[in-house]
Design brief:
The complex is a heterodimer of chains A (about 300) and B (about 260). With about 300 residues, chain A is of the alpha/beta class. Chain A has eleven helices and 14 strands. In chain A, helix 3 crosses helix 4. The relative contact order of chain A is 0.14. Chain B is an all-alpha fold and about 260 residues long. Chain B is built from eleven helices and no strands. Classes of the chains: A alpha/beta (about 300), B mainly alpha (about 260). Chains A and B meet through strand 1, helix 1, helix 2, strand 6 and helix 3 of A and helix 1, helix 4 and helix 10 of B.
Chain lengths: ~300, ~260
């Protein structure tokens, strides 16, 4: 099976005022097998949307090699476009077209026709719960329904690879959760490889099996969420409220203790996640009375702050 | 398989016609584009011929110009709309991530423009027949069809120039959609023979195929004997060049990233 995306040495600059160049992406190397949902994370302006636009062949890179689903995406762009689609977090369609008309128009752009077109439109509306809005104009839809329309449009041509650009931006928590469930369904039940961008960390943690972090146009880290947290040594936050004495020097010398902030009756520790470290830490509190103990796992937010900071 | 692929290609073209049709039928401005302004233009010219005491074939000369201008404007704006609607609704990304090419968009929009142009033409020739005695069939039906084909082809070329301008210069280029046809009409002799133009403009007029189609239609009313071959060859060449230029401009827009900016 071909990799979903194979990118090497991708660079992109845009002309700015007075003809100077702004480098947006620098030497991007990525291998996305498509088995799991792949997340591209990064702060605003890090180049996520540009990268996704290059992967979807909307725009071209200045340099580098790009293969999408085993097809050379720099030379056979039309072949690639037949097999992929994209949905954006701020979807836009012609305002005065209804949901059904917008889907029909989008299907026609992919060459669908006759019964095949109507079947695809009906399937999309049913899959994304849009039937009740089929005669509503795009301009009168709520943000959540617009988002569902965007996803429905992106599935019309039966893509093998779907790009989602910040799919839950601007949605309320309930609608965002619903959209995430749809994304999971697209990947798991419909067998579509998904590459998505987000800067919402819990979303990436919930959906993505692999993550790449973009910062100032470069990939600064790439791994599974769990391994990223471990490799960055962000560690778990352990807060202990206690009464009595603790040997601070002994505590600070424990291997695997990343940081220790001790004040009267309270220790804020960050420890590497392994049982040996945890046991050693607890032994230093043997002579004290532990009143409260709180262990908090790091999340991708911490990874994000660490990497973006 | 081949027929399916052909049907797919046709439907890619029809996608543009479909979008323009839906937007047009919901837009109250369509009535103004198709009926109100064309009638104002026709009546102004027709009544002016009465006031100036213009007779017979000279009236036909002027009315051919008024009708030609109207259908040219209607049809060329339809071709331009194919990108303008996407640009205004910021949905240009949806079009260009799909496997369509420039010619799909232009041919589909042109088809719809021809339908609208023919509708307006029919209204105008009926009104001008009733009010000013203009016989639009004086040169035979083939003359009318050739004239219309020429005007529609020139409309496609102007529409493509507008699309190319949008992809080169962005949103600010949409002014070209309304101004370019006026300039073309001015130098191609809308209400006068091109011989009255200053020499440099006469030279330009002969590079505009519309000049030949206007002269050809007017020859049916006794204004010279004009061949359509030069105009036909020119329009075919410009159409091919325009389609190639549009395709190249789309590729350039993908390189410069303007497609991304037009979607934001």
């Amino acid at each position: 099976m071909n990799d979903a995306v194979r990118a090497s040495g991708i660079c992109k600059s845009f002309n700015t005022l007075f003809r100077s160049k702004k480098e947006v992406l620098r030497d991007i190397n990525l291998l996305i097998d498509g088995e799991e949902i792949f997340g591209i994370l990064g702060p605003n302006g890090s180049g996520k949307t540009t990268l996704l636009s290059i992967f979807s062949t909307l725009i071209y890179p200045d340099r580098g090699e790009l293969t999408i689903l085993g097809i050379d995406a720099r030379r056979k762009t039309h072949e690639v476009r037949k097999l992929i689609n994209i949905s954006t977090g701020k979807p836009n369609f012609p305002w005065s077209l209804t949901v059904r008309e917008n889907l029909r128009h989008s299907g026609m752009l992919y060459g669908l026709h006759g019964r095949e077109l109507e079947r695809a439109v009906d399937w999309s509306m049913e899959s994304f719960d849009l039937y009740q809005y089929q005669d509503t104009r795009f301009e009168n839809l709520s943000t959540g329904v617009k988002q569902r329309l965007s996803l429905a449009k992106a599935m019309l041509n039966g893509p093998k690879l779907l790009f989602l650009d910040e799919p839950t931006t601007g949605l309320d928590p309930q609608m965002a959760q619903r959209t995430r469930a749809l994304v999971r369904r697209i990947h798991r039940d419909m067998g579509v490889s998904v590459v998505m961008t987000t800067h919402y960390m819990p979303e990436a943690e919930e959906l993505c099996g692999m993550i790449a972090f973009l910062k100032e146009g470069r990939i600064v880290a790439q791994d599974t969420p769990a391994r990223l947290k471990r490799s960055l040594k962000i560690g778990e936050r352990l807060t202990i409220r206690y009464r009595g004495d603790v040997d601070a020097n002994a505590l600070r010398s424990i291997p695997g203790l990343i940081s220790a902030d001790l004040s009267t009756g309270r220790a804020d520790l960050v420890i590497d996640k392994n049982e040996a470290t945890f046991s050693r830490v607890m032994r230093t509190f043997q002579s004290a009375e532990i009143l409260e103990l709180e262990l908090e796992e790091p999340d991708l937010e911490d990874v994000f702050i660490e990497l973006a900071g | 398989m081949c027929s399916l692929s052909l049907q797919g290609e046709i439907n890619k073209c029809l996608s543009a016609a479909y979008k323009n049709w839906i937007i047009s039928k919901r837009n109250v401005f369509t009535v103004f584009e198709l009926v109100f302004w064309p009638l104002i233009s026709l009546l102004s010219i027709g009544l002016m011929t009465r006031f100036l005491g213009v007779e017979g074939d000279t009236v036909a000369f002027l009315l051919v110009g008024a009708i030609g201008l109207t259908i040219l404007q209607i049809c060329q704006i339809d071709v331009a709309y194919v990108l303008l609607f996407d640009m205004w609704s910021k949905s240009i990304k949806n079009t260009f991530v799909s496997p369509v090419r420039g010619y799909h968009l232009v041919l589909g929009a042109l088809l719809f423009g021809m339908v609208r142009g023919t509708f307006a033409f029919t209204i105008l020739v009926v009104i001008s027949r009733i009010l000013f005695g203009f016989d639009f069939l004086a040169g035979g039906i083939h003359t009318v069809l050739i004239f219309l084909a020429g005007v529609f082809a020139v409309s496609a070329i102007i529409g493509m120039i507008v699309c190319i301008s949008i992809l080169l210069f962005g949103q600010k280029a949409d002014v070209a959609a309304w101004s370019l046809s006026g300039v073309i009409m001015l130098i191609s002799g809308i209400y006068y023979p091109v011989s009255v133009l200053p020499e440099p403009l006469q030279f330009m007029a002969h590079a505009v195929p519309l000049t030949y189609f206007l002269e050809y239609y007017r020859s049916a009313y006794g204004f010279g004997d004009h061949s359509i071959v030069t105009g036909a060859v020119m329009v075919a060449g410009y159409m091919i060049a325009g389609l190639i230029a549009l395709e190249m401009t789309i590729e350039r827009a993908r390189n410069t990233g303007i497609l991304l900016r037009l979607s934001e």
